[in-house]
């Protein structure tokens, strides 16, 4: 385990966390009229509001303007050290100090900077086009005298009254005045704001309901409200009109960029315009992310600058000394006739000027085109990832989307994955699966968790029950006599892990089939079934009505279906339970009001499942107005005919993350006032009355069973209110809502607390969120790749643990360490109301549990050391949200991280969005490893932004997570291919490309330094100026791009079959400092070989038939050609996968060099004075030229080639063995041998998923010699055709293709 860094949580991290849908964040604000609440405006009188100089409604999201584009754009480009150096070189080239022609320096710099600026301009122009389209949208504005005129959005002012029609966007933040609806309400879609697709109800102020009928008389309406802020879910302000002051609730605000739906028109007044609107206040740039390879690349460039400085200093120093001592004797150079450069009397000045000149000339060590090439390669890589059809999800039409190309290689270096559960590991498509009503449990189906548990019991030989019946989620009862025909309960964790003699088993491995019954329940058994089938004595197959097939409903139990619930022992309680399902919600019905065609717009999938369940049980919700809901339900008479019931909504107490409950106060058709409540079990149980706990014990037992089965649970209660009590409370509640100031949210919650008490418990529901397809296999494969997986979820501990087993995150043999504050000491301190005591007890218990966990692990490790043959212990950490709050404290976080690092899996339960972000930031900064955050909802945005790489899943919770992410995928299972295939490829390609870039520049650049020894250290280049210019820009650029885009060491199927290959990226084996140093040393060797062998081969001898020897530029051209062949040969040695594009770019670049030579040498001497007809007349006719260009590159590349061959033969790496396996087609020649390898690769991973993973591929060498014999047989690489899928046991014959 690596060292843990000391880190602090930054204050800016709060910006990453999605704002909760609550008004509690108002508590820090000041009162109206003070700072934060100083905005005043007059409606329908914009001239009066204009005095405050509020901005117009024009918005801009561009990064540049016409005036700032070049200054700001150039500043951004020259922030890069390399570009700044080349700017300095271009400036020096205009002085006498330049070693080459200015045009050969300035043109490449202009090209590189120009490409980057053009890219920036194109992106900003697109943003400008979107701004123009939005600013020029039209809306109707009141122009006076009751007349409406069409104006552009950009021309709106604060105080304007506008009319927005159906399916149009709101142009600004508006106060809702009136609408076409009789109830003065409207439906709003806020997808562009928070990513949620459900419709929301907005209501106009009662004071302004009829404003639309006489807009001309709507004057002197004065608003005092909060200043512009980014909170989407809160608003504080008052409206003063006609001597009345009315509080403006958030539900009366229509936000810019939300859309009007299902309402013909609304009238509103502009409160915030332009950049003051809440959507623009939220439009902050995402956190800047740079890959670790880029940061390391910057360090390499700094090292090269230091190297460059040393060479230039040596050149200047030696030149100064030679000028002082040797120059007076060199009379033929006329030293005393020059002003500075060769003047022995001014040797120091000569040395300094020569240092500057050398610093410019040796700059070819620094690749000018590196940054541009890397950007081009990453863009193409991102395009290839997006075009991978195997990561396309057709159900949502969602391909993989690379929202940024800067982090491609980071995908191949992930160490820790932090993932949400709901909607990420699960489908977020809720199904009403089980329920407990009046102490009786209903539902006979099996959840995914139960199926996974049975599968494990069968694998361990402890399951002897019948196979599944094949029904829709049903399980045939076992032969246990205790079952008595009752539906089997969910499996508990104890039953999953217990042996054959443990409690909870009948001794033969059968699951228990009965639940103990409280007194007074029907038939003496909780959950007594309908009459038994005479043929088998088991529960007869339920006759499903069409309603049972509704989406979101999957409860199988004939006691409730088809109206049979009326025959149960307590139909009154069942009726009230179903009534709560049908009435206590905020769903909006759309479409025809029939059971088959109606569609519910809901705020969460859970709520949709509950409403669908109510309809399936006969309580059909079909209409909503601002003041009532309408439900078709069975009458209470004996005939049970359906009747339409109107429930008048008196108050709606909405759900939020603090209250954890929702209540609605309604007046039923009989005139009774009912309080209907649903919420978390602990919240509901705290509010039960003494007479409402009749079913509390049985319901609590069922809640635990549902949670253990992986179901999401809610409790339901009700209370009949006395009219007088309600009237008094209503006044208190209305007064609390009318408060404007910091205490408003607290007062509203206190008022709600007064009425939500003395509840009668009805029962609970169990809603299943199914695992996404392929999640267990994906987690298993990622674990074998050495990735640590943390699950951060808001679910209960039991639910999260069971989901962990179902998705293979938790496995048999794991020792769970549970850190929780669900302890009696904490409960006692909480009930006493002593906050200091509560803090002290919570902190102490958290620390004790963390230390106890570390002690357990240390003790086991000590035993393993004493007994090396013992199997290594594997731990899993489970921590709840309350404990996590204290574990993240500055004095505890190191212990928490140490414990988490020692565990193979970490599950954090009941965590808030902010805690997700804090944990992610802590893991990233303290461990110094690359982490990935993945989620699908707005509550995951903080985690996604805090992680090195954020991945969003386009699911059913909107697109906010996707909009905040770096990569977007359709399903969690695609993460396997994204990381193990594309991530590993991208990392290897970028690492190889950058290493090769530095190699070829060192090989070329050092020859300039070596030649200075023969030129009196005068910085005389041996190459023509245009040769210097085109080396990086043309002749060696295309092969690098081919490697960065297409190179592979093994194919996609093999990467998936041997996931431990991913460890190469985690350890940064391709771009470590040792690997970079090896490339640099190889470049130095190649430079020495090319320089000295070419010099020796071209001097002191006749080179042509006429006996003529070569001049300086002739030798330079020969050396330049030799270096091009050297770096080309090195590229061929390093490439792991050849395509026709590789051949075209590599050999095409060499052909381009010879064509350029012919063309440039043929130009007149005033254009190519140094190399006029060099190739045709002096070099090409000489066999020695061709011989040198073949032998010298061979000698330069030979050591690296020998090393690679020797390593592969004598001490092969994991990837070498896998390559041999792939090329030998072992799966065809000997399937048994391949199965042996596959079985070896399936070993359970050890602590931290590292110990066994390290040996996974290396263990291939331990296979029988018969297998290794086949592996070592080298056959010619066959041509592979793309195939659709990949399998571990029998991979397809495709294996490799670029995408």
UniProtKB/TrEMBL annotation:
Q: Where is the composition biased (Low complexity)?
A: 476-485
Q: Name one Pfam family in it.
A: PhoLip_ATPase_N
Membrane topology per record: Multi-pass membrane protein
Cofactor(s) needed by this chain: Mg(2+)
Could you tell me where the Basic residues compositional bias lies?
Answer: 1272-1281
- Assigned EC number: 7.6.2.1
Subcellular localization, as worded in the UniProt entry: Membrane
Reaction(s) catalysed (UniProt annotation): ATP + H2O + phospholipidSide 1 = ADP + phosphate + phospholipidSide 2
* Top enzyme category: translocase
Q: Where does ATP bind?
A: 420-422, 607, 655, 678, 712, 793-795, 910, 916, 939-940
CDD domains in the record: P-type_ATPase_APLT_Dnf-like
Q: Name one GO molecular function term.
A: magnesium ion binding
Q: What residue spans carry the Polar residues bias annotation?
A: 533-543
The UniProt entry, under InterPro entries, shows: ATPase_P-typ_cyto_dom_N, ATPase_P-typ_P_site, ATPase_P-typ_TM_dom_sf, ATPase_P-typ_transduc_dom_A_sf, HAD-like_sf, HAD_sf, P-type_ATPase_IV, P-type_ATPase_N
SUPFAM superfamilies found in the cross-reference section? Calcium ATPase, transduction domain A, Calcium ATPase, transmembrane domain M, HAD-like, Metal cation-transporting ATPase, ATP-binding domain N
Key words of the record: ATP-binding, Magnesium, Membrane, Metal-binding, Nucleotide-binding, Translocase, Transmembrane, Transmembrane helix
Chain positions covered by the region annotation Disordered: 461-550, 1272-1299
By its UniProt entry, which PANTHER family does this protein fall under?
A: PHOSPHOLIPID-TRANSPORTING ATPASE, PROBABLE PHOSPHOLIPID-TRANSPORTING ATPASE
Q: Which family does it belong to?
A: Belongs to the cation transport ATPase (P-type) (TC 3.A.3) family. Type IV subfamily.
Name used for this protein in its record: Phospholipid-transporting ATPase
Organism, per UniProt? Klebsormidium nitens
């Amino acid at each position: 385990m690596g060292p843990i860094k000391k880190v602090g949580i930054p204050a800016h991290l709060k910006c990453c966390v999605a704002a909760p849908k609550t008004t509690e964040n108002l508590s820090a604000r000041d009162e109206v009229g003070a700072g934060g609440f100083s905005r005043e405006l007059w409606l329908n009188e914009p001239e009066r509001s204009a005095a405050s100089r509020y901005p117009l409604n024009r918005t801009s999201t561009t990064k540049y303007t016409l005036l700032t584009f070049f200054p700001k754009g150039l500043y951004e480009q020259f922030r890069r050290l390399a570009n700044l150096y080349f700017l300095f070189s271009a400036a020096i080239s205009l002085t006498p100090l330049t070693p080459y022609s200015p045009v050969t320096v300035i043109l490449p710099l202009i090209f590189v900077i120009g490409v980057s600026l053009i890219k920036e301009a194109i992106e900003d122009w697109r943003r400008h086009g979107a701004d123009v389209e939005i600013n020029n949208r039209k809306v109707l504005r009141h122009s006076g005298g009751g007349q409406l005129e069409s104006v552009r959005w950009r021309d709106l002012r604060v105080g304007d009254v506008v009319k927005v029609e159906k399916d149009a966007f709101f142009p600004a933040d508006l106060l809702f005045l009136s609408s076409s609806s009789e109830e003065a309400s409207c439906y709003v879609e806020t997808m562009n704001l928070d990513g949620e697709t459900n419709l929301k109800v907005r209501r106009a102020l009662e004071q302004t309901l009829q404003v639309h009928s006489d807009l001309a008389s709507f004057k002197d309406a004065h608003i005092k409200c909060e200043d512009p802020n980014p909170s989407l879910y809160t608003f504080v302000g008052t409206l003063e009109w006609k001597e009345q002051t009315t509080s403006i609730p958030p539900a009366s605000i229509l936000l810019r960029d939300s859309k009007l739906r299902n309402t013909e028109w609304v009238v509103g007044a502009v409160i915030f315009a332009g950049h003051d609107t809440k959507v623009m206040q939220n439009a902050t740039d995402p956190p800047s992310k740079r890959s670790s390879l880029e940061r390391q690349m910057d360090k390499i460039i700094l090292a090269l600058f230091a190297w460059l400085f040393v060479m230039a200093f040596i050149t200047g120093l030696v030149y100064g000394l030679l000028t002082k001592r040797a120059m007076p004797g060199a009379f033929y150079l006329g030293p005393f006739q020059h002003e500075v450069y060769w003047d022995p009397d001014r040797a120091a000045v000569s040395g300094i000027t020569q240092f500057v000149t050398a610093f410019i000339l040796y700059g070819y060590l620094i690749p000018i085109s590196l940054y541009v090439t890397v950007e081009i390669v990453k863009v193409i890589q991102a395009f290839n990832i997006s075009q991978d059809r195997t990561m396309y999800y057709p159900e949502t039409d969602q391909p993989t989307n690379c929202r940024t190309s800067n982090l491609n290689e980071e995908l191949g270096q992930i160490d820790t994955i932090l993932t949400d559960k709901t909607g990420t590991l699960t489908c977020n498509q809720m199904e009403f699966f089980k329920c407990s009503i009046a102490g009786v449990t209903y539902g006979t189906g099996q959840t995914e968790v139960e199926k996974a548990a049975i599968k494990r019991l069968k694998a361990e030989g402890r399951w002897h029950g019948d196979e599944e019946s094949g029904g829709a989620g049903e399980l045939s009862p076992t032969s246990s006599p205790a079952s008595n025909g009752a539906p089997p309960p969910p499996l508990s964790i104890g039953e999953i892990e217990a042996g054959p003699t443990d409690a909870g088993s009948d001794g033969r491995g059968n699951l228990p089939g009965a639940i103990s019954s409280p007194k007074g329940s029907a038939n003496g058994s909780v959950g007594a079934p309908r009459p038994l089938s005479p043929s088998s004595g088991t529960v007869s197959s339920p006759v499903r009505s069409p309603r049972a097939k509704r989406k979101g409903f999957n409860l199988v139990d004939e006691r409730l279906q088809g109206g049979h619930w009326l025959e149960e022992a307590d139909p009154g309680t069942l009726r009230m339970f179903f009534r709560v399902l049908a009435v206590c919600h905020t769903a909006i019905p759309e479409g025809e009001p029939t059971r088959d065609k109606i569609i519910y717009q809901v705020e969460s999938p859970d709520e949709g499942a509950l409403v669908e369940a109510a309809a399936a049980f006969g309580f059909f919700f079909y209409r909503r107005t601002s003041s009532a809901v309408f439900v078709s339900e069975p009458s209470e008479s004996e005939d049970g005919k359906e009747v339409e019931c109107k429930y008048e909504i008196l108050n709606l107490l909405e759900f939020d993350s603090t209250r954890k409950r929702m209540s609605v106060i309604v007046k039923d058709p009989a005139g009774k006032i009912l309080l209907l409540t649903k919420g978390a079990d602990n919240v509901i149980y705290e509010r039960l009355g003494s007479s409402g706990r009749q079913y509390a014990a049985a319901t609590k037992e069922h809640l635990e069973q549902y949670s253990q089965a992986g179901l999401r649970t809610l409790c339901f209660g009700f209370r009949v209110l006395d009219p007088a009590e309600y009237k008094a409370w209503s006044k208190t509640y209305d007064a609390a809502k009318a408060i404007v100031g910091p205490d408003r949210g607290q007062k509203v919650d206190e008022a709600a607390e007064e009425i939500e008490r003395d509840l009668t418990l009805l029962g609970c529901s169990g809603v299943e969120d199914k695992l996404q397809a392929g999640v267990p296999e994906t987690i298993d494969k990622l674990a074998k790749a050495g990735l640590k997986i943390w699950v951060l979820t808001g679910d209960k501990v039991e639910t999260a643990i069971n989901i962990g087993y179902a998705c293979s995150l938790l496995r048999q043999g794991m020792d769970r360490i549970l850190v929780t504050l669900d302890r009696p000491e904490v409960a006692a301190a909480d009930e006493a109301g002593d906050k200091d005591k509560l803090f002290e007890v919570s902190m102490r218990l958290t620390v004790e549990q963390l230390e106890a966990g570390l002690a357990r692990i240390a003790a086991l490790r000590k035993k393993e050391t004493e007994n090396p043959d013992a199997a290594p212990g594997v731990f899993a950490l489970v921590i709840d949200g309350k404990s996590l709050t204290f574990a993240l404290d500055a004095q505890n976080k190191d212990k928490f991280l140490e414990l988490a690092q020692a565990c193979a899996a970490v599950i954090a339960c009941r965590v808030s969005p902010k805690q997700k972000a804090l944990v992610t930031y802590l893991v990233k900064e303290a461990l110094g490893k690359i982490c990935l955050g993945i989620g699908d909802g707005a509550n995951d945005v903080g985690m996604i932004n805090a992680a090195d790489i954020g991945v969003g899943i386009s699911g059913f919770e909107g697109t906010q997570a996707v909009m905040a992410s770096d990569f977007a995928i359709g399903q969690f299972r695609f993460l396997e291919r994204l990381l193990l295939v594309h991530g590993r490829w991208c990392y290897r390609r970028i690492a190889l490309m950058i290493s090769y870039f530095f190699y070829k520049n060192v090989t070329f650049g050092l020859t300039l330094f070596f030649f200075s020894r023969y030129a009196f250290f005068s910085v005389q280049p041996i190459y023509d100026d245009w040769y210097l210019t085109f080396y990086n820009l043309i002749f060696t650029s295309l092969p690098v791009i081919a490697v960065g885009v297409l190179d592979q060491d093994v194919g996609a199927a093999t990467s998936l079959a041997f996931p431990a290959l991913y460890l190469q990226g985690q350890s940064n084996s391709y771009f470590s400092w040792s690997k970079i140093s090896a490339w640099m040393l190889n470049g130095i060797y190649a430079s020495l070989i090319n320089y000295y062998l070419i010099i020796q081969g071209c001097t002191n001898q006749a080179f042509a038939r006429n006996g003529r020897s070569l001049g300086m530029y002739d030798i330079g051209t020969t050396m330049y050609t030799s270096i091009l062949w050297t770096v080309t040969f090195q590229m061929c040695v390093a490439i792991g996968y050849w395509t026709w594009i590789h051949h075209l770019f590599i050999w095409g670049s060499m052909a381009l060099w010879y064509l350029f030579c012919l063309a440039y040498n043929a130009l007149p001497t005033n254009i190519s004075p140094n190399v006029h007809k060099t190739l045709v007349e002096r070099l090409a006719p000489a066999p020695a030229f061709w011989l040198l260009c073949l032998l010298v590159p061979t000698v330069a590349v030979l050591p690296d080639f020998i090393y690679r061959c020797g390593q592969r033969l004598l001490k092969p790496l994991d990837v070498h063995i896998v390559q041999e396996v792939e090329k030998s087609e072992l799966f065809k020649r000997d399937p048994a041998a391949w199965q042996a390898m596959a079985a070896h690769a399936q070993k359970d991973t050890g602590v931290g998923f590292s110990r066994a993973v390290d040996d996974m591929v290396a263990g291939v060498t331990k296979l029988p010699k018969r297998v290794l014999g086949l592996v070592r047989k080298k056959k010619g690489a066959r041509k592979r055709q793309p195939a659709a899928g990949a399998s571990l046991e029998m991979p397809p014959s495709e294996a490799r293709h670029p995408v």
